[in-house]
Amino acid sequence: MWAGLSSLVWADGFREQFRAAFKAGDVTAAEKVLAEWEKATPKDPDLYVARFNFLLNKATRRTPVPAAPVAAVAGAPTPAPRPQVVISYDPATMAQAAATLKQGIALAPERLDMRMGLAKSYEMVGQPGPLLQTIRETLEARKNGGKPWLWRDGVPLPGPENAFVPAAIEPFASNYWKQPGDKGLENGRPIAELMEQYFPQNSLGYFNMGVYYAHLHKTQESYEKMQQADALDPNDISTLMNLTRMAIELKEKDKAAAYQARLRKLPNGGPAADSFASAMQKL
38-51: per-residue pLDDT in tens? Predict the structure, then answer.
């Protein structure tokens, strides 16, 4: 279950009954609650959240795999190998889960949690096209006069929209930066571009475009994007670390020293600033 979609802490009634059955792993009871819930209030958006969680749990496959041998240490007992589990998802059931969320979104298009949950379901099964389309449709819906976003259980967003929404989208781009090869980069790039386009006063789009260019070893392009991010969020340690490193690469000693000094002033920024000491001495 993806905790970001629903905390499963709902009010009394069907929500609480489903929560109890789901937590207990009682499939029969959970199915019964869902059936009764749909009969009583078929247009309750949280019914579709609950059904999605049920189907996601059903789709999840946890396969034990042999643990890698643990190196022995002289004079110490050999530790037992740590059990490992490979998680996969049944495609047909995941398709049902996605269809369920689409039904819920049609009833409550302002529910951002369901839209992000739908995007996450596509990420889980490795479908970057539908993931990107979901994010794009989400942003276009709000731009075209949609109602203010709601979050879990239909409550208002827990933070300002221009900060909360890009922060909810950013992990999808970050996931692609971690993948090997250029394919992941090209899947992440349009997500970063959408953040830039729809939230030009938020640093995350520029920062992620900077990460994209950095992976391509395009230091100048990355440097410019990181500078834009820094102008909007001057106290972000990751941005300042990237700027310091790139200023050093570009042989801009004065700028590198200025970034390093700002980094040192941040809480817990001292060790990060110190990590550039050797490179700075060589400039």
Answer: 999 999 999 999 99
